[in-house]
Amino acid sequence: MSMPHPSSAPDGPDAPRPPAPRSGQSVGRGGAPVAPRSDRDTGAPLIPAGRGPGSPRTPLPVPGRPADLPPAHTALICAALPGLVISPQEGQLTGRGLEGFYMAGRRTLSRCLVRVGGREPLAMQARMLAADRARFVGTLRASPDAGPDPDLVVERTRHAEGLERITLRSSAHRALRLPLEVALGTDLAELADVASGRSGPELQASVHGGGLRWSGPTGHVTVAADPPPTDALASAGLLRWALELPPGGTLTVELRVRPEGQGTTGAAGRGAASPFAEAQVFSDESGAEVLLRTCVDDLRALLLRDPRHPADTHLAAGAPWRCGLAPAEALAAARMTLPLGTRLAVGTLRTLARSQLGGPGPQSGLIPGPLRDSGPHLPPGCTATEATLLFPVLLAEARRWGLAEREVEELLPAAERCLEWLRTTVGDGVYLADPQPGGPFRCETQAHAHRAALLGADLLDTYGRTGGTALRQWAKAMRDAFRDDFWVEDGSGGRPAAARTRDGHTVPQPVSGAVHLLDTGLSAGGEMAPGLLDKARTEQLARLLGGPAMDSGWGLRSLGAKEAAYNPFGHRSGAVRVQETAVAVTGLAAAGHEQEAGSLLRGVLAAAEAFGGRLPEMYAGEQRTPGSAPVPHPAASRPAATSAASGVLLLCSLAGIRPDAPAGTVTLRPFRAAPLGEIALTGLRIAGAPFSVRVSRLGLAMVEEAAEGLQLGV
Questions:
Q1: Helix (H) or strand (E) holding 383
Q2: C-alpha angle with apex 57: 54 to 60, nearest 5 degrees?
Q3: In this structure, what DSSP letter does residue 254 have?
Q4: What is the mean pLDDT of residues 28-33?
């Protein structure tokens, strides 16, 4: 089978993608360029342009040695995609690094320096107000007789959609006459060029109305000021106001950045109806409330619309590195947020169904996706395979949560094509291999395929389609073979292999991808589908995941700490990946291993508190010690769709909600140990109606609100 074409979705430093073929470059069958093994082979990470679906991607150049990403882990990142603003803690935008306002992946303003009376305010505080805005506070001694205390506060509120509000608050006892100066500049550079250090010089400004305007080959941008400035000096990009503040007075200047000639299609819009329910959590653990509120806010900030079908929303992968559609991650995030409603799921499924490959040939039914680096022990994995297998799983589970029958029937043909691709690709074999010639059989790929087969078979049977029996038979054959072929025996009781090669050798390293063996999905009746491991080997996997080599105290490491290739900052060789930790928690809890699940859950919540409630997609896997804090990863997106969705999944897992809306039932399997004490989840949605549940400190669950006719299952 030829290698699937990469999608047009940005995939970021975590997922190197094949560039367009160049002279002398190898080309795979079907015309697809052969992708590099990883960012170590290409010489540099690949950074997306940050646009919406269907937009071009801009890779970084390939220098002689790997290039470092510009620092963003301490920045305040405001997102309301396609709008984005990246600010340093001081609040002043100097044009260095990634700083600036962006729209649709292009920097619209790189410099915004405020001076009052010829001096920069002393930075006192910077904090996020919401996912799309931040507040910066500075002070000045404006009166010559003010003594040691500042008597002027300069407050700046910055919004991702291109708005900055500068407010001066005087506490002086007499009137203050001060000049306010704002120095502005832009290069209109692509985010990829900014990240690689290839952005050009600032453009020359011109005076335009009550502000300034810059023109470049790719478009124009204006900054309009309200009230209009007293003076405007285009050569310096300077706006100046002669202000007079009465004693105790306040004055505000508003700057609005307006791109021209740049498409902003794809924005879901902060004023648009959100696909997420207004869920809340009340818990003995206060950090849980902050986590859910921040996660839902981040999810809203990452919403995009299909430009040609604006009713359909989906999630971008994350900011600042991956501001576009990554199919596998969009599907995974939509699945984890099903407790908040099914509208995101149906929008994501519709968007990706339109990208599904058709026609004859082995790729028919595949949902395109880029390659993803898999660490030091495996070649890059194919996210097209993962997305294609996730599609029928999301559709089947969304139906359990209450997706309307007409919407299921609308999307069922695309799910059928995904399942047909699976059966065609496997053929007479037992396992699903990587699409590359000679590619390995990955453990997590078999888990995805097995789950898709069982849940897809349920869908086909329910709607009178053929193929369900064949899928179940193949899934059983895989279960029978997997337990021997993928198990590595050792003195500690053994573990699942990360992969199996075509010649029968195993890749024995313990990796976090094994958590997908625990994620069997919701089948009929709200029960978990059968898994690939028997009870004894599930218990051994639980011991492995709960042991000190894998549990860092902040979450699950992506590679065991005792392995030779372990690197606490390796995004597939030791860093904590929030999504996989969340999958581990829910899978361990469902299998009855609450002690290990609770430890991982408390670790992630502690990390979330250290990160102010906004979980990055990954962070260093260094061991937690008393008084320590999780170390950020320089290449992590923050906000990120999968980590924000993981927060929703983690908190809902405490109640163990297993709905079967078509049957009119919901089953609760809460943590008996109540690791966060009493917890109440309100404003969730099942069968299109609000659903609320409370779990006591004794681990007893009680439904407090539900759709009419919804019965509590046994």
A1: helix 383-401
A2: 175
A3: E
A4: 30
pTM of the model: 0.89
Report in angstroms the alpha-carbon separations of 451 from 410, 425, 624, 675. Answer: 22, 16, 34, 29
Helices (H) and strands (E) in the chain, counts: 13, 35
Report CA 104 to chain centroid distance, whole Å. Answer: 18
DSSP H/E element including 259: strand 250-260
Q: Which of 434-438, 485-489, 508-512, 574-578 has the lowest mean pLDDT?
A: 434-438
Q: Minimal CA–CA distance to 215: which of 206, 224, 227?
A: 206
Rounded CA gap, 182 and 255, in Å?
Answer: 10
By the 10 Å C-beta count (0-12 exposed, 13-18 middle, 19+ buried), 588 is classed as: buried
Q: Which CATH number is 280-316+325-712's, of 1.10.760.10, 3.10.28.10, 1.50.10.10, 1.10.565.10?
A: 1.50.10.10
How would you label 545-555 residue by residue, b for 16+ Cβ within 10 Å and e otherwise?
A: bbeebbbbbbb
Q: Tokens for 105, please give them.
A: 């992946």
Structural domain spans, the chain? 83-260, 280-316+325-712
Q: Region of 664 please: left (phi>0), alpha (psi -120 to 50) or beta.
A: left
Reading the block at residue 545, the tokens are 């995941």
Place of tokens 């699942």: 496
| Pairing status of strand 711-712 against strand 665-668 | parallel
Query: For 83-260, CATH number?
Result: 2.70.98.40
Classified as helix, coil or strand, 33 is: strand
Cα 608 to the center of its chain, rounded Å: 15
Q: What span, in angstroms and rounded, lies between the C-alpha atoms of 355 and 507?
A: 33
pLDDT digits (tens, 9 = 90+) for 315-335: 999 999 999 999 999 999 999
Torsion of CA 596, 598, 599, 603, to 10 degrees: 140
d(CA 82, CA 305): 10
pLDDT digits (tens, 9 = 90+) for 247-302: 999 999 999 999 986 444 444 544 457 899 899 999 998 899 999 999 999 999 99
Neighbours of 278 (CB within 10 A): 12
- Quote the CA–CA distance of 305 and 336 in Å, as a whole number: 19
Query: End-to-end distance of the chain based on CA atoms, in angstroms?
Result: 46
Provide the residue count of the chain.
714
